[in-house]
Amino acid sequence: MNKRLVFGLSVYIGMIFILAFLSAYYLLPRIPPEKISEDVGIRVIDGDTFEINGEVVRLICIDSPEKSEIGFDEATQFLENLIMGNELRLEKDVNDKDEYGRLLRYVYVSSDEDEIFVNREMVKSGNAEVFRYGEDVSKCDEVESKN
Could you report the per-residue pLDDT of 7-17, keeping only the tens digit for each? Predict the structure, then answer.
């Protein structure tokens, strides 16, 4: 093979690699950095509600500040710190969903030796209050206890 042919093939192959890289970079969907987390599919909405894989979950027996209320940011951040990057266990009480279509659940986070009862931690930390509503109250006393 002569040198011109080798040089031409090298340039041609190099251009193919560059085009493949640029195509992948511009054509594949990108997620903004602030949305990336280890918990694909988890998004905290507020201190008593989060979304997991498209299902909205409402923590039973608690109520946290709404977006327009003082403490909203702190409660939301506290819940995010509790659940993001951890294995979750969701437990149903009487009703599966509320009138808004949200899953009603007690939420537990697995830690090294134990489980953390998220609903209770939100109250214990001062980021939520106990809120008894409807039939789903079997663990409200446990949520209320600060031990």
Answer: 777 767 767 76
124-140 pLDDT, tens digit per residue, is 999 999 999 889 999 99
Residues constituting the chain? 147
CATH 2.60.120.10 fits 33-144, yes or no: no
**In degrees, to the nearest 5, what angle opens at C-alpha 67 toward C-alphas 31 and 128?**
105
Query: What is the model's pTM?
Result: 0.71
Burial (CB < 10 A; 0-12, 13-18, 19+), residue 34, is exposed
